[in-house]
Design brief:
The protein is an alpha+beta fold. It has two domains: about 150 residues, Ribosomal Protein S5, domain 2 (2-Layer Sandwich), CATH 3.30.230.10; about 110 residues, GHMP kinase, C-terminal domain (Alpha-Beta Plaits, 2-Layer Sandwich). Helices cover about 35% and strands about 25% of the residues. The protein contains ten helices and ten strands. The strands form two sheets. Strands 1, 2, 3, 4, 5 and 6 form a six-stranded mixed beta sheet that branches. Helix 1 runs parallel beside helix 2 and helix 1 crosses helix 3.
């Protein structure tokens, strides 16, 4: 049996540049993996199965993005072998932390290694785009600028290790719903994004945190009052709060105070203490 870890990520700013003719939106966002993982157990089997520790039928077999990843890998390479895959889910669902996409990328990397690397890095990206929007980023992880629908990735040599904590308000944010609420006034001009990119390049993470905004996060706050409650609470306690992806997770750099820890217990929010990695 092979055991592999599948990391979460946070978005450090997320801007939308345009709505595409195919209905998708082009984004501009800085992704960074964090030291928080799902764990995936994989072993050869007589048929392909995908299960999770949540025992949720909606996440099993064909309904799980990992199943799609295996099938797409087989179709792309012509290598066929069935596996029993069990995903120990620690990354919350609908949290904006990329759990499903990370699971898919992790299994694709496993398969490429298992079959002695038939796919180049370029081929892996082409395959991953077919599986899901954020999957290509997780092939390498670290710190990267992600553009388009997640298919254009600029990895940076520098990775950060700052402490942060994540608050998940136990609400599943539906990405399609959030994107459906995007209006013209939420789109950002490319010239502004070039300025943000250059600020990050010259001054690093701290300057990026000063200018980071999340267009989807603002919609998520309106659609899910629980997210707005978390943001307001953390800001009242003196933290700068960031929403990851389309929600529902909210994160802050540094360590959580005792008041934050108590509030999370009382309000049934999941608190994750981690760091960039």
């Amino acid at each position: 049996m092979k055991v592999v870890r599948s990391p979460a990520k946070v978005n450090i700013g997320l801007w939308i540049t345009e709505k595409r003719a195919d209905g998708y939106h082009n984004i501009f966002s800085f992704f960074h993996t964090v030291d928080f993982y799902d764990v995936i157990y994989i072993k050869p089997s007589s048929r392909l199965t995908v299960k999770t520790s949540l025992h949720d039928p909606a996440l099993e077999d064909e309904k799980n993005i990992v199943y799609k990843a295996v099938v797409e890998f087989e179709n792309f390479t012509g290598f066929y072998e069935d596996f029993e895959i069990l995903i120990e889910k620690n990354i919350p669902l609908g949290s904006g932390l990329g759990g499903g996409s990370s699971n898919a990328a992790t299994v694709i990397k496993f398969l490429n290694e298992y079959f002695s690397y038939p796919l180049s890095e370029e081929d892996l990206i082409k395959l991953s785009v077919k599986v899901g929007a954020d999957v290509p980023f997780f092939l390498k992880g670290g710190f990267a600028l992600v553009e388009g629908i997640g298919d254009k990735i600029t990895h940076f040599d520098r990775k950060y290790s700052e402490d942060l904590f994540i608050v998940y308000p136990n609400v599943h944010s539906h990405t399609k719903l959030i994107y459906s609420k995007v209006t013209q006034d939420l789109l950002t001009e490319k010239d502004q994004l070039n300025i943000i990119f250059n600020l990050q390049k010259e001054y690093g993470l701290n300057k990026l945190l000063e200018v980071a905004q999340n267009s989807l996060g603002e919609i998520a706050r309106r659609e899910y009052p629980q997210i707005d409650e978390v943001v307001r609470f953390l800001e009242e306690k003196g933290y700068k709060a960031f929403i990851s992806g389309s929600g529902s997770s909210v994160y802050c750099f540094g360590k959580p105070s005792e008041k934050v820890k108590v509030a999370c217990k009382v309000r049934d929010w999941k608190l994750i203490e981690t760091k960039l990695t």
